[in-house]
Each structure stands twice: as structure tokens, then as C-alpha cells.
Amino acid sequence: MHPVRRRWAAALLLLPLLSGCFAARDGSPYDAGAGAGGGRLRVALAFPPAERFSPYGADATLLSRLGVTEELTRLDGNGDAGPALAESWTRESARRWVFTLREARFQDGTDVTPAAVAGALTHAGRADPLPAALTGVTLSAEAVDERRVRITTGAADSALPLRLSSPSLAILSPKAYRTKAGTPKAGGGTAGGGTAGREAAVDPAGTATGPFTLAKTTGATRATLHRFDDYWGGLAHASGIDVRFIADGTARTNALRSGEVDIAEAVPVSQAATLDRPTLREVPTARTTALFLNTRSGPFADPAVRAAARQAVDAAALAEDVYEGHADTGRGLFGPALTWAAGERPRLSGRPAAARADHTSVTLATYDNRPELPEVAQVLQQQLRTAGFSVRLEVREYSRLESDALAGKFDAVVAARNTMLDTGDPVSYLADDFTCDGGYNLAGVCDKAVDRAVAEAGAQADAAARHRAALAAQTAVLRTDGVVPLVHQRILHGVGASVRGVILDPYERTLVGTGTRR
Predict the structure, then answer these.
(1) CA–CA separation, 238 vs 460, rounded Å?
(2) pLDDT score recorded for residue 200
(3) In a 3-state reduction of DSSP, which class is residue 302?
(4) What residues does the Solute-binding protein family domain cover (predicted)?
């Protein structure tokens, strides 16, 4: 899913390279195949823009998936930070880094300069809400010379290159940033935790650096993208992209099957058998579907009642029946797609004993943009009822659910989360989702042991040590019973027979690139 407050950054991940994948010209993995390009692509996405394509919230990954925006760095297939708009970088000291920019142009024809990059990062630091990649972080950026920008952090940050790969830290031209009075703001200065005041809306249309430029939007239903012919990575095969936002998974699949679209993301498991095998792409991801229990108010504020709900859940049945084998039973917050977490089973002794449910009334909510979630919620409703709970189910479209879920208006929420979506740092994910100050804390977890474990993990600079500490922090989170892991997902994409070069990204940041064509 694509939340308002996105997870932030640090540490190195080791994701397995996808078999049958190759490096596109922009460095992304894509499926093999040859074919002529030049035509427009028709793409159906599950999540409509929720914030007028602001790069600072839920829409950041929409822009990156469609090849509109780029960052200074990008995650490669192993989860390491690789070059993007920055072609190289060096660490001057514990808090200072220098990034050397490649020669590139913004889609408005201006050059990507160190001053423009510094300005973009400064504006991100003034956004309200703050991008999760900058939550709890203070950094400043300044031009060094014609090609280099220096970034200084308030505290030592060994994984800054990973942090800067976050889609919410896309680099846009100065034209994208306007004050409420309509005049550009000056670039440079402090980003993250600054006191410069709120930023007005940011317009990525024609101001980004990717191979496609956002030309037109029709509310939350359609978007038109044109090829950016001066893209630094070379001319894209497709001349443009026509995007439809279709929340209903069956409707997305039908649009592919009828030839209305060339690519349909997130095909429901229930629809997989209706597509020819060559049309289906199964992508192992770092996405975990979980049950989040409201620890701040309502029945699940009682740890013993949370324990009763946790004991009622049969996650294996969900993986086998709802996902029909296209998912793995949830063992923790981090799935088997992450090699450092594969095979780890948290030791969870010492949790509170379960109370009797005694017909305790709870409201369970989920969203239908990911088509399996309502069915998962229905199965959980039955499992909880069997355990003695009285359960009311509420299903909405994601953009209509998120704010209420974050405000704690439901007793429980079923949600799917790519734990490595933004920067590939498990510690940042844990901090944003499960600490007292977290920006995307669906369960409302506020526990001293969790905060302490996450802080200890965040202090680890060595990648292996950081991973070990993240697993220890995961155990602290699971002991609260605020979250019950259900399944680790594989995403199914529907791709037309004539389409080549669709990007298979375990982080779900990219879908279309320069090599995508039909």
C-alpha cells in the first residue's frame, strides 16, 4: 500500500536477484524479451492518487513506478544503494557526504544542478507531513561546485545513500515549488526538523527527471504521461503512458484480458487462473500482510484481549486458502524474500496470557485496493467469532480508510505493507510503524522496550549488526501483540503478450522504465 507517512532509511538489504531478470539501461531489473517500441503503453494501477501527486506522501511511489520521478540514489537488486541522479559519492566525515551529480536535465529544460538538488531536499524537509525518510532526521544541503552537492546530517548517518533513494525525496526543478502566494521559494538550507514553516503543494508535472513526464490528470481516474526525449538514461521505447486507476482487482484483470490495457498491476489471486501463463508475472516481495490491533483504545488496549485475538488467528489457512499458495505463512514482520531474515523465528515467550473474549465487540477494517484483503478480513472475522469475539467488518477504498485507521477509529485493521518500500532499512520501518513517535503506527504501539530496541538497532552502522538488531527489535514489537503477521506476499502482475521490459521490482518502486514497450 501507499501510506501518507512513508518509512525512512538506512542499512543494507540482501534481496535475492530475480531469476530471468536483466539490467535495463536505467539499472532496473526487467523481464527478458525483444520487441519493437514506439507505441503508447496502457497501464492499470490499483491505487489512485490521494494527494494530487504530491511526492511527499502516498503518491510518491505512483510517480516512481511510472518513471516520472528519480532520486539521488536507487536500490539495486541486492538492496544496496546504487547511482541515479548522483553518479558517485564519498563520505567526508561521520556527518558529511559529497554527492557528484551526473549531467541531466529536468523535464522543464533546466539543468540538474547542485543548487537545485539542495533546494529540493530543503523543500522536502519543510513538507507537512514530513516525508518518513526524514522523520527524526536533520540534514542540510549546499552546492560545493558545478557538479557536487554536500549533505550534512545532524547526527552520524552511515546509510544516508539508502535514505536518499526514498521516492519521497525525488529531485524536482525549482519550478515545482511555490509558496501559497505563488512565488518560488529559495533553495538550500536545512531539511528535516527545520522551522521554516509549511510548504505549499508541490507540482511534479513537467518538473521531474524521469523518462516520462506527467502531462495531464483526470481527477483520481486517469493520467497521461509523455516521453521525455532529453532523459539522461536514453530515449524510452514507449512514446508515452496512458494510466487508468482501477481499484477493483477483477476490473483491472478484465481490462487486461479484453485488451483495454497492456499492464495490470496486482492481479487478484482469484483471477490468476483466468490469465494465460505467459501473461502472469509473479514477483517475490518484501510485503507482509498483518492484523494490526489498536493498543491505545477500545478492547485491544488490554494486552490479554490482544493475546486472545492473536491465538484465534490461523495464518497458515490464509496462505493456503485465500492466497492459493501465492504467499508464505507469516512468521514475523520480515518475509523470506529478505535473505538476512529468512528462517528466523522470533522467540516470543513471556507474552500475557489470553483472556476470554466473552462476545467482546470489535470493528475490523480493511481496504479493497489489494483484492485479497477483504477475503482475508472475512476469514479473520470468522476465526475471531469462533474465539468468542463479536466482529463487525468494514471495507473501504484505501484513500478513504487511511486517515481513520491512523487516528485509531477501528479496533483492528488488516493491511499489506512492503516493509522495505522506501529505503531498504528495516530499522526505519520499525521506527515509523511501531514506536511512540512513529508516523505510520496503525496499531498505536507505544512501548518502552520497543522504543529502546529500535534505538539500539538504529545505532548500528555495520549492516550485519544492524540486521541482527532489527530482528531483536522485531521480537520486542511482536511481544506487544499489537501486530499479528499473517502472510508474506508475492505480487502478481498481468502483462500483455506483446509487452516487454516490465520491471519486476521486489521493492515495488518501479514498474515501467526505458525498456518497457509493446
Answers:
(1) 43
(2) 55
(3) coil
(4) 83-440
Residue in 73, 164, 155, 194 with CA at minimum distance from that of residue 458: 155
Contacts of 250 (CB under 8 A, 6+ apart): 268, 270, 271, 371
The model's pTM: 0.76
Those residues with Cβ within 8 angstroms of residue 266's Cβ, 6 or more apart along the chain or in another chain: 46, 249, 252, 369, 370, 371, 491, 492, 493
User: What DSSP designation does 355 have?
Assistant: P
pLDDT digits (tens, 9 = 90+) for 205-238: 999 999 999 999 998 899 999 999 999 999 999 9
Amino acid making up residue 327: A
Rounded CA separation 164/159 (Å): 9
- In angstroms, what CA-CA distances link 223 with 66, 201, 249, 369, 443? 10, 18, 19, 18, 34
H or E segment and range at residue 213:
strand 212-218
- Alpha helices by DSSP H, 107-207: 114-126, 160-163
| Residue type at position 157 | D
Which tens digit of pLDDT belongs to each residue from 97-116? 999 999 999 999 999 999 99
Give the start-end residues of each E strand in 228-375.
240-245, 263-264, 280-293, 327-329, 361-367
Query: Yes or no: is domain 285-490 CATH 3.40.50.150?
Result: no
Where does residue 169 fall: left (phi above 0), alpha (psi -120 to 50 degrees), or beta otherwise?
alpha
Terminal CA-CA length for the chain: 27
List residues bridging with 213 in a β-sheet: 226
Q: Kindly give, in sequence order, each residue whose CB lies less than 8 Å from that of residue 248, ignoring residues fewer than 6 positions away.
A: 368, 371
Q: Which of 235, 226, 273 has the alpha carbon at shortest distance from 253? A: 273
- Please enumerate in sequence order all residues whose Cβ is within 8 A of that of 295, keeping only pairs 6 or more positions apart, or say none: 301, 306, 443, 444, 445, 446, 480, 482
Instruction: Indicate the SS3 state at residue 60.
Output: helix
CA 306 to chain centre: 27
Strand spans (E) along 18-104: 21-23, 29-31, 40-45, 73-75, 81-83, 86-91, 96-101
